[in-house]
Amino acid sequence: MATPAVIVFDVNETLSDMAPLASRFADIGAPRHLARLWFAQLLRDGFALAATGENVGFADIGTEMLREVLQDVPLDRGIEDAVSHVMEGIGELGVHPDVPGGIQTLDSAGFRLVTLSNGAAQVAQTLFARAGIGENFERLLSVEQAPAWKPARSAYEHAARQCGVSAEEMMLVAVHPWDIHGAARAGLSTAWINRGDGRWPRYFAAPDITAGSVEELANMLTGHQDPGADEARR
């Protein structure tokens, strides 16, 4: 695998820690596990729209999906207030503990760092400013300006055009196997962040690198660790 000219990071769950959103659901009287169900269904509908050639904003889908998920839940407030409380929580999330050190290591090594998120670029900007890593990224890309959400090929091609490189010169870093698969099919090299010792779905194209954290990935790419040392995670 050639050294990438540009490293492209997914944002939601890869860099941002979305676990605190479960507390937002608890705040409104909803079960905590609905946070994961809501996010999964949000992604499902975003993917469906991408498959039909449409692009609807993350917040628009997320808001409408919350209304659907919460409609039969005995909440402690009105549905619209409940939806607002959960959505506001997205803007208050932090990054995973391994992210700042890993990002700073890659930046110091001279890698060009960008994001490609299915969410809004403004959300990433706020997240990174709070974490002190905003200056480490060359640009914050979002599918807001792309033809479709990831994992559509056109999303990754949009990122390559914006960075002035070919897809083959880019590496996508993500926790989501579907994102890794989409990037691989578009020609990017890939790195899977497997924080939870999960198993790789065999129906997806395998990642080029598997790491347990962004910090571990940074050590691999800067020569401090063998990229093959984590093969057992797959």
TrEMBL record:
InterPro entries the UniProt entry points to: 2-HAD (IPR006328), HAD-like_sf (IPR036412), HAD-SF_hydro_IA (IPR006439), HAD_sf (IPR023214), PGP-like_dom2 (IPR023198), S-2-haloacid_dehalogenase (IPR051540)
A GO molecular-function descriptor: hydrolase activity, acting on acid halide bonds, in C-halide compounds
Presence of keyword Membrane: no
Pfam families: Hydrolase
Domain of life the protein comes from: Bacteria
Signal peptide: none
SUPFAM superfamilies the UniProt entry points to: HAD-like
Keyword entries, A-Z: Hydrolase
NCBIfam families the record matches: HAD_type_II (TIGR01428)
Sequence similarity: Belongs to the HAD-like hydrolase superfamily. S-2-haloalkanoic acid dehalogenase family.
Name of protein: Haloacid dehalogenase type II
Native source organism of the sequence: Nesterenkonia natronophila
